[in-house]
Amino acid sequence: MDSFYEYLLKSYILFGEKEDYRMFTAAYESIQSHLRRGREACNEGEGDPPLYVNVNMFNGQIINTWIDSLQAFFPGLQVLNGDVENAICLHAFYYAIWKRFGALPERYNWQLQAPDVLFYPLRPELVESTYLLYQATKNPFYLHVGMDILESLEKNTKVRCGYATLHHVVDKSKEDRMESFFLSETCKYLYLLFDEDNPLHKSESKYIFTTEGHVVPIDQRFREKSWEDQFPCEEPNNEPPANISNCERIPEERRYGLPLKSIYMRQIDHMVGLS
């Protein structure tokens, strides 16, 4: 389901399809209402850190206590939607899991503080969110996260002919397998994270990434619909914002400190079993 939410938003950005943005907004509001648990604000107040859980689609009750590594893409999507504060909080949770194991287990049980599925196939989602959060905030903390991930990959997954899937994130045993998304996404987002002078970063946001990390230009030609001249249709009144790139910016005074207050960072570390 991850790509469905992603493409609702990205198709609006790319093609200007207002119905796609309305569907994304409805889905995002539903996620916030039914899947989000924890305190209301990311960086203030009391209570558990925000977390998105799996629920029964008929009654909204928690159906299990695991999350999977693919969900680590969600902070990046929140950045694109301008919800930077919530992105910071969820990213910190996944990064804490990475710090504990030097990788992301495919499925992690947040109640037991232990992996349910132990392998890590070099997935890119955490790196992707790290890259997008750095672009949004320019906080050097995310360069530190990227370096931590890179060093873990070099230490735990590098082999003679490439980088290997971790069969077991605890004992670091490996499989004879390197998925194609490792090169097309994991390495690409790590490279772009540290390459400040890359042309993509000088393009005034004229490019967007597909869910598989391909670069697509944002071009007015993609928004031209020749059939509308012959078959005009009435648009509903609930218009999406004219420019959704005006995201909720992080205040300048927070740019060079921890993105979360240290007390909340420690709370998240404790939540995943880090001392």
UniProtKB/TrEMBL annotation:
It is found in: Endoplasmic reticulum. Keywords: Endoplasmic reticulum, Glycoprotein, Glycosidase, Hydrolase, Unfolded protein response. It is an enzyme of class 3 (hydrolase). Its EC number is 3.2.1.-. Transmembrane segments: none annotated. It holds the Pfam family Glyco_hydro_47. The keyword Glycoprotein applies. The keyword Kinase does not apply. InterPro entries: 6hp_glycosidase-like_sf (IPR012341), EDEM1/2/3 (IPR044674), Glyco_hydro_47 (IPR001382), Seven-hairpin_glycosidases (IPR036026). PANTHER family: ER DEGRADATION-ENHANCING ALPHA-MANNOSIDASE-LIKE PROTEIN 1, ER DEGRADATION-ENHANCING ALPHA-MANNOSIDASE-LIKE PROTEIN 2. Belongs to the glycosyl hydrolase 47 family. This is alpha-1,2-Mannosidase. The lineage of its organism: Eukaryota, Metazoa, Chordata, Craniata, Vertebrata.
